[in-house]
Specification:
Blueprint (H helix, E strand, L loop, with lengths): L27 H9 L29 H6 L10
């Protein structure tokens, strides 16, 4: 196992991780919104995002800044620091 979960691979995760990449304005955000059945990502002709987004199940929608997300050992992204 390689990547952000390698350090804690013995713990496993209940979340599937999917990486969606593509050229500018190629429909990535629209695809995510379609699959989830609601507007999660802002879509537009001009660039709308310059970072990564983690979408996970939970009781409510929460926006969390990158350092807080990377610092959470349960998410498995600590190696991105």
């Amino acid at each position: 196992l390689r990547g952000p979960l390698a350090k804690h691979s013995d713990r496993g995760t209940s979340l599937p991780f999917v990486l969606l990449v593509g050229n500018h304005s190629s429909g990535k955000s629209s695809f995510v919104n379609y699959v989830l059945g609601r507007k999660v990502q802002t879509a537009g002709v001009a660039p709308t995002d310059d970072c990564f987004t983690v979408i996970a199940p939970g009781p409510s929608d929460v926006d969390q800044d990158g350092p807080a997300l990377v610092g959470d050992p349960d998410m498995g992204f600590a190696n991105l620091r």
